[in-house]
Fold:
Amino acid sequence: MNSISLDRTDLRLLAEIQQHGRATNAELAARVNLSASACLRRLQRLEAEGVIGGYGARLEPRALGLGLQAFVRVQLSKHGQAAIDHFIAAVQLWDEVVACHALTGDMDYLLHIYVSDLDHFSAFLLDKLLNASGVADVNSSFVLRTVKEFRALPLSQLGRG
Structure:
């Protein structure tokens, strides 16, 4: 993957839009000490170069009735390309799965799941996940409390500028 050159102003602009996604261009420009036109040009460049992948709202799961969050580790019985493609295609169809990561170690995938309650989780597990051909083993963990939640990328680690 090609690395893009980002200066301090780019990093400040990215930090601002991560925290204040609904800010107007004029507000962003003022926060990073740019003119509105220069700020807009930088945003457009960052979008065109794929640094900014999109915009969206953060929804509160509990307010929507999604009160149970789980992480499910999945091990496949076969690791051929056809089996992997079949599992990935199935995951794409499951609305309960908000993220799926391929892993190293003893489990192949980590699913991040939101459901309304334990009954919904049970139905998902029995009717969807365990019925997906090629699933050998699953291990589920339920979230008791969120101590820290990902909200923004750690731009300070980039050490640029």
